[in-house]
Amino acid sequence: xxxxxxxxxxxxxxxxxxxxxxxxxxxxxxxxxxxxxxxxxxxxxxxxxxxxxxxxxxxxxxxxxxxxxxxxxxxxxxxxxxxxxxxxxxxxxxxxxxxxxxxxxxxxxxxxxxxxxxxxxxxxxxxxxxxxxxxxxxxxxxxxxxxxxxxxxxxxxxxxxxxxxxxxxxxxxxxxxxxxxxxxxxxxxxxxxxxxxxx
Length: 199
Ligand SMILES: Nc1ncnc2c1ncn2[C@@H]1O[C@H](COP(=O)(O)OP(=O)(O)OP(=O)(O)O)[C@@H](O)[C@H]1O
Ligand SMILES: Nc1nc2c(ncn2[C@@H]2O[C@H](COP(=O)(O)O)[C@@H](O)[C@H]2O)c(=O)[nH]1
Prior knowledge:
Blueprint: H1 13-19, E1 21-26, H2 33-43, E2 48-49, E3 52-54, E4 68-70, H3 73-81, E5 85-91, E6 94-99, H4 100-108, E7 112-116, H5 119-128, E8 133-138, H6 142-152, H7 157-172, E9 179-182, H8 186-198
């Protein structure tokens, strides 16, 4: 299921940090992380985007292995027990996790690796990778955030309510991150991310 590169031994976390860099992109659901990420990858194909594993059902158009690896809760719990995740969390009723081996491989090879994950996972990464660079994406306002979640039209009312509740908690944690970027004008936000990553 998960991509495994032909590497004989995987470096430890600390060894990896000398070879590559880990970037964590976090922010409330609907703020535009995925959209920013897609544009960033188009402009910088040298980046490695870590495809997460989730127990959420695929949305229309989402492809297994591209957007996420979609698996059952029991399989996810088995992978947790086997230590297969670099971090994982439950978010709005579903599990999400970052495949450990693929990410460590890419860092080992000197890649700039980007994780797009929620707050609890980002906190776990800060503990295991203190040198990771963390970015928190903020909405211009809470009303605009709700509008964006609704405009996506892919979540039930219940899921939207859960995501908005969680968004309030997440936004309060924005100061824990190395940098905060407001995604108001899309191009400006994208340029701000590029500036901190590449300039
Ligand atoms: N700067 C922006 N101005 C207006 N709309 C935006 C902007 N950035 C993103 N959007 C829109 O907001 C909606 C949510 O964006 P997106 O799905 O990327 O959010 P997300 O943070 O990845 O959400 P999730 O964490 O739930 O996956 C999309 O319809 C997207 O087109
Ligand atoms: N802790 C983790 N969070 C993740 C991961 N992959 C995605 N996410 C975050 O989950 C929410 C919901 O995503 P959605 O696709 O259902 O809208 C969002 O904040 C994502 O950033 C992961 O591997 N670990």
